Amino acid sequence: MTSLDLRPVPVSVRPARRLPQIVSGLALYGASMAMLTRSGLGLDPWDVLHEGIAKRTVLSFGTVVAIASVAVLLAWIPLRQRPGLGTVLNVIMISITVDLVRAVLPPQHELAWQLTLMIGGIVLNGLATAVYVGARLGPGPRDGLMTGLSARTGRSVRLVRTGIELVVLAAGWLLGGTVGAGTVLYALAIGPLTQAFLPLVTFRRPSAPGRSGV
């Protein structure tokens, strides 16, 4: 199977197809984050940090996500990373959507509902990641930090990502973020899920003039 090309493509290429895709993908991503926070069974590493900060401040979860995203973008400067439209939309859409969904979705205390939200949230997160990444409109703040550090240090993406997530997980746990079964399941499942969904939703640039993209 040929590997997918996920490099950014100019927004002028098939915008009517790709803009709705990235907006819907980011909205679904925010919804999946809200589901995991309401399950009470553990979050992904970055959301452990976000929740920990939210617990220590008067800020909403979504506001913390937005502030953290901007802080990560500032770290792009010495790494010489350049944001794209997808980067900006990532900051805006996810922070708004996660707060909206959390406002209508109460915390769950019955195990059956907690498991439903945890598993559903992880699967939806994998789909949402594939949808917004597959639009090829630029990386999210945390994705760019990972690829930028990898390029500057010469370390593998896998090693850099693991290091970043261990640091933010530890910091979030110390601040009171929720670490649990969902954290472990997310770490094990998110890669395979995203990889499974990507071929179904990734935009493929036309190979020759006059041919439409997939």
TrEMBL record:
Give the matching InterPro entries: YczE/YyaS-like (IPR038750)
Q: Where is the chain membrane-spanning?
A: 21-38, 58-77, 84-105, 111-135
Q: What are the record keywords, sorted?
A: Membrane, Transmembrane, Transmembrane helix
> Which organism encodes this protein?
Amycolatopsis taiwanensis
Q: What is this protein called?
A: Membrane protein
